[in-house]
């Protein structure tokens, strides 16, 4: 449950696996969540805890999580990944993130080129 | 909760929500695959936009739903797409933009770029102000968030 955050390399590696796992099946989902990381055990100031939105005088890391959405009765199959992205790593992270997602989301509609071509063909055939 | 028609609209309001509540708001991308139900052959089917030939089994259909959610106020902003062509733009430019907002990193502000240009440009020169503005905008649009695509 309380697994440690992964390094970015590991995260992308496992995220790729998560997507690949989904490729074979005809249903299911993958959830990717990003959020500001405000949890800091060493934080003593109650001000910061009570009014977290007031705090950002310096950039904060964000946490990116990924799961395959298994819970309740399938909990044993649940895969959870998380990684922390420091502010200066954001750009590099999102470049790779988009690549991995692009590669993994294979069930989306490809560009319309083929489709319109096929449609045109069909029209010709029927006409 | 309704979905936004365009990703730009979704992004603009998401950025606004993040500005208002940067610490609680989370952004989720849900990629889901659902099997396509075999449809009965019906020439007068209402959803005629998809070229449907019921004879051949279709591959499962995927969709990507982006959601910005603030658990405190309960605001949820959503955008849904099924097009692979949008993935890179959404996951890189849009999510990156929101990620920077969440991290509290200043987006390359266009105003400062313009100021810098204005300082560099001598007053006496015949530089049309429009041109400087364009330069500023082009320089400030880091992250490709300015890219707008006409789409349905």
Automatic annotation (TrEMBL), chain A:
GO MF entry, a single one: 7S RNA binding
Gene3D superfamilies tied to this protein: Signal recognition particle alu RNA binding heterodimer, srp9/1
Pfam families for this protein: SRP14 (PF02290)
Keyword Ribonucleoprotein: yes
Statement: the UniProt record of this protein carries the keyword Cytoplasm: yes
Region called Disordered, residue ranges: 108-127
Compartment(s) of residence: Cytoplasm
Family: Belongs to the SRP14 family.
Name the UniProt record assigns to this protein: Signal recognition particle subunit SRP14
Biological source species: Trichoderma simmonsii
Taxonomic classification: Eukaryota, Fungi, Dikarya, Ascomycota, Pezizomycotina
TrEMBL record, chain B:
Record's compositionally biased regions (Low complexity): 43-55, 120-136
InterPro entries in alphabetical order: SRP9-like, SRP9_dom
Pfam (any one): SRP9-21
GO biological process: SRP-dependent cotranslational protein targeting to membrane
Domain SRP9 residues, every copy: 4-100
Highest taxon above the source species: Eukaryota
Location of the region described as Disordered in the Swiss-Prot/TrEMBL record: 24-69, 101-152
Acidic residues: bias regions: 108-118
Gene Ontology CC terms, in alphabetical order: signal recognition particle, endoplasmic reticulum targeting
PANTHER family: SIGNAL RECOGNITION PARTICLE 9 KDA PROTEIN
Protein name: SRP9-21 domain-containing protein
Organism, as annotated: Trichoderma simmonsii
